[in-house]
Every structure is written in C-alpha cells, then in structure tokens.
Amino acid sequence: MTRADRDLVAALRAELAAVDPSRPCDRAAESAGLGPALSTREAAVARLAVRLGRGTEAGRLLGDRRLLGDRRLLGDRRRAKHLRVPESGESGASPAFDWPAAADHCRLAYLRGRFLARGSLSLAGARTHLEFVVDADEAPRLAAWLAEADLPASWRVRRGRGVVTWKSADTVGTFLRRIGAGAALLELEARQVSRALRGELNRVLNAESANLQRAVSAAGRQLEAIDRLSADGRLAVQPYTVRLVADARRETPESTLGELAERLSLHRSAVQRALERLERLALHDDEGAGRRRAARSRRGRPLTRAVEA
User: What are the C-alpha distances in Å from 167 to residues 2, 126, 171, 185, 254?
Assistant: First the structure.
C-alpha cells in the first residue's frame, strides 16, 4: 500500500476505536470482541480497552511508579512499541460471546472489537482486502456468524491460523459502515469511485485509440485500391453506388463508415460492401476470381491457386 492508503486505514481504525458504546451490553460485547491478552501497537485501541474497563500494563506500571517514586519507569513505558491489555481474571481463550442470543447492536459491537483486535484492511492498488486472523477453530464459527449478519465471508487455515476474508469492496464497505465507520469510510469510497472512473476512462480512451488506428489503416487501404482501379480504368465501369462511395472516400479520407453513409444518404452496410468490393477488385485482376476467393475465405475453406489446364 502507498503511504496515503496506510494513513487512511489508520484513520479508519482510529475512528472505529473512538466509538463509545452507550449500552452496557454493547460495551461488554465489544470487550469480548477485543479478546483476552490484547497486544497492540495502536494507542487508540489501547485507549478503547481502558474505556471498556480493561486493566493495562501501563496502568499497573504507573501505579508502581507512584509507589516507588521512580520517574524513569513511565518513560520506559512510553518508549515501548507494544501494549498488552489482559482481561481481568482471564488469560486463556477468548471470552465467550452468546451470538445467537445477542441483539443486532451487540453483534455489531462484538464485530467492531474483533476487527480492531484481529482484523486488517489492505487497499493495495485498486483492490480492497479485509481479513480476520484468529485461532483455527474460531474461523468457521466467525464466518458462520458473519453469514448470519448478511456479510458472507470465505475462510481457510493458513500456517496454523484461521483466516476469514473479504475481497469485495462492496462487502467491506457495508461491514465498516455497519460497525460505525464514518468520515474515513467516505474518503475510502471516494477513492474507490475515483479509481473506477480512471479505469473506465482509460478503457474508453484505449478503445477509441484502437478504433482510430483501425479506421486510419482501413482508409489507407481503400484509397490505395481506389487509385489503382482508377488508373487501370476499372473504377469507371463499376456500379453507380461503388463509384459514389469511392468519390466520397477520396474527398474525406478521415470519415468513418457512418459519416460516409449519412453524407451519401445510404445504409452503412451498403457503404461497407462498396469499400470491400473496391479492395477486393484491387487485389485481383479478375473480378470473378476475386469474388470466388472472398466467398471461400468467408466459408473458412483453404484458398488454392487455380491451375490452368
């Protein structure tokens, strides 16, 4: 990811961590989602754990400093890169969360905590990838719960860990919106729309460029054929429509088939057949042989050179 993408992901996670549930049941559910023995580098997640009533090593160290009068201890804590937030009275598996009996708002609070504790979001290139890295036995359960919340996700075991994954930008956006993301999510969606528009614009420009190159190449072949037929006198004996199209092509070499048809008040298919006839005649001195060869080519038969008896 680029630095801008990383900053956006960090802002989004900080915004989610700043959500302060008002219901006690939501606070308990989000605390359960954070899980026991939370280790994090993010100050916003650590502050969330403190708001939810979780004890922290920083708090214990601060208490020890006050008791011992050692001012260097707090400075050591500030220089540390990790913060471990254990659940009071627990140090083992994730605290139980009764998903079937929980209300929808409790479920979303739990998922918000699980994302902050075990989730990661990647915005590399034009792809959006969100995954939860959990214990192997938790992955199928979490995927089933997400499916019940109309957020189906795939899961697998990778290096002994369970990985629950979303690769759809729409599903990721719906999930983040439901768990409380706001301004950062709007910025993320704006970037996705901008990338989609740039991609569509590039496809349109590439298609137009290819069409223009083909039109220029075809017009060059047609003008060469018209000049050859005019030089040997065969153009003058062609039907009126063919001669009319040939004159129009000479006058406006840059015109498309549709523009020629509109100018001559003819159907586009008639103009196309006339130009194809001119090219075919220029390639073959014998008009009948040229027509027969073109018919064989359209039927997919191999072309063979006629041998005179």
Answer: 19, 11, 8, 16, 46
Are residues 211 and 159 both part of a single domain? Answer: no
15's tokens: 């915004």
Residues 66 and 201 in one domain: no
Over residues 59-101, the pLDDT tens digits come to 444 344 443 444 443 344 443 344 555 544 443 344 578 999 9
Q: Is residue 309 part of a domain?
A: no
Query: Are residue 212 and residue 177 in the same domain, yes or no?
Result: no
| pLDDT exceeds cutoff 60 at 31 | yes
Q: 69: exposed, middle or buried (C-beta count within 10 Å: 0-12, 13-18, 19+)?
A: exposed
Q: Quote the pTM value.
A: 0.59
Question: Which residues does 273 contact at the CB level (< 8 Å), separation at least 6?
Answer: none
Picking from 86-95, 134-143, 186-195, which range would have the lowest pLDDT averaged per residue?
A: 86-95
The pLDDT value recorded for residue 157 is: 94
177 plus 255 within the same structural domain: no
Whether residue 14 is found in the same domain as residue 120: yes
Q: Which of 227, 234, 290 is nearest to 253 (CA)?
A: 227
Q: Which domain holds residue 284?
A: 197-299
